[in-house]
Specification:
With 393 residues, the protein is α/β, with parallel strands linked by helices. Helices cover 32% and strands 13% of the residues. The chain is built from 13 helices and 11 strands. The strands form 2 sheets. The protein has a 7-stranded mixed β-sheet with strand order 3-4-7-8-9-10-11. Helix 10 links the parallel strand 10 and strand 11. The longest helix is centred in the C-terminal third of the chain and has 18 residues. The chain starts with 5 loop residues before the first strand and ends in a 26-residue tail after the last helix.
Length: 393
């Protein structure tokens, strides 16, 4: 695993339990102790600081005490290890009624994401668990060990009607910790047995670990895989999404899926004005050359704490373009850095956003990307449970 050790702890639901978990994280049991309150970029992590979770009563901020040692203290901080936190949730399916989404249900085996994408719209959701959307989002990974069991239980509920399930709608199902935990494969095994359609969204070539399942489901019209490709510039990708697969590996995964008969698409997402949006046509062109059948794009969203996190990242990594990028983002969000209104969250408004949409439509037509077809919901069946005998009648 990256940066060494992985530690586990129970996800606390009360203030008392949370204090105990904090004590554990700083104790000798969890050496090296994690100091996530310092404002400093760490090697291999995307966020440049760790703002306090908005629901916590206290926050810690480094302050120069007059001895001018703070700069030296923060100059060479060690890499942060990944900490696994067990989630005791009693459900696996997340439901939504958003008119902007083409699905109403999803499964996310993990909360928090080790990929560390600085622009990730899921970062603010970590605050609901008592964690910072900054460095803690990338290092405190909450996992659902019983996700497959819970999913099967929910699929067997009387009256359940199969519709498209999305795997990875919030955080990446194939982030690095899944190499060991294999929770995503367990979910796919359940969906395959039930004949349930699924759409997968990932930035990882790790999806190829499950190519055997995906090939069988594809033959039945039950699966589609989307690879998110943000840039073809490996250097920019390393800074924006430090632990995700390189752009070249993602495109190679698209090709491997296509060659195996698994419908694959590419999401040019997010498009960031003034930073990577000029690559839109090149990304989609490379995707088509590697066998992608479908394409999509999403304009950058900066909800809640993500505004400051992304602005700080710009100042750290592209200071010469920071003001320009933020200005262009405001042009697509009616003068703000975010607009959560339905119907425009993913595409933005204004001339700049409109031009981006026109460019996308033109390149999709030129390259011959196919329209998205619905997956088969008619194969859903309840398989026999352990110990049951099939009736011969």
């Amino acid at each position: 695993m990256p940066d060494g050790s992985i530690y586990t702890a129970e996800l606390s639901r009360t203030a008392q339990d949370r204090e105990a978990l904090d004590a554990f994280a700083g104790s000798s049991m969890a050496e090296p102790a994690l100091d996530l309150a310092r404002s400093q970029a760490r090697h291999g992590r995307g966020a440049t600081h760790n703002p306090a979770a908005r629901f916590k009563q206290h926050a810690t901020t480094p302050v120069e005490d007059g001895w001018e040692f703070l700069g030296a203290d923060l100059a060479d901080l060690p890499p942060l290890p990944t900490v696994l936190v067990r989630d005791a949730s009693r459900s696996a399916i997340s439901w939504n009624d958003s008119p902007d989404l083409g699905f109403d249900r999803a499964v996310n085996p993990y909360r928090g994401c080790e990929h560390g994408c600085v622009y990730c719209y899921a970062r603010p959701s970590h605050a609901y668990l008592g964690y910072s959307p900054g460095l803690e989002f990338e290092t405190q990974i909450v996992f659902k060990p019983d996700v497959a069991v819970l999913l099967e239980r929910e699929l067997r509920k009387p009256g359940y009607v199969a519709r498209l399930m999305v795997l990875g709608s919030n955080t990446d199902p194939y982030q690095p910790v899944d190499r060991t935990l294999r929770l995503t494969r367990a979910v796919l095994e359940v969906l395959e047995r039930f004949g349930h359609p699924v759409s997968i969204v990932t930035k990882s070539a790790g999806v190829l670990r499950d190519l055997d399942i995906l090939r069988r489901m594809a033959a039945r019209g039950l699966v589609r895989v989307w690879l998110s490709v943000t840039t073809l510039d490996a250097g920019l990708a390393r800074r924006m999404e430090p632990r995700a697969a390189t752009p070249a590996r993602r495109l190679a995964a698209v090709q491997a899926l296509a060659e195996a008969g698994v419908p694959a698409g590419v999401l040019a997402a997010p498009m960031i004005p003034g930073l990577n949006d000029m690559e839109l046509e090149r990304i989609l062109g490379a995707a088509r050359q590697h066998g992608a059948q479908h394409a999509g794009y999403v304009l950058l969203r900066l909800p809640l704490e993500l505004r400051d996190l992304f602005a700080a990242w710009l100042q750290e990594h592209v200071p010469d373009r920071a003001r320009r990028v933020l200005s262009l983002i405001r042009q697509t969000r009616a003068g703000d850095l975010n607009d959560s209104g339905f119907g425009q969250r993913f595409t933005g408004t204004g001339d700049y956003a409109g031009l981006l949409g026109q460019r996308f439509g033109r390149v999709v037509r030129q390259l011959g990307f196919a329209e998205r077809e619905g997956l088969d919901t008619g194969q859903f069946r309840l398989p026999p449970q352990a110990g049951e005998q099939l009736s011969l009648l």
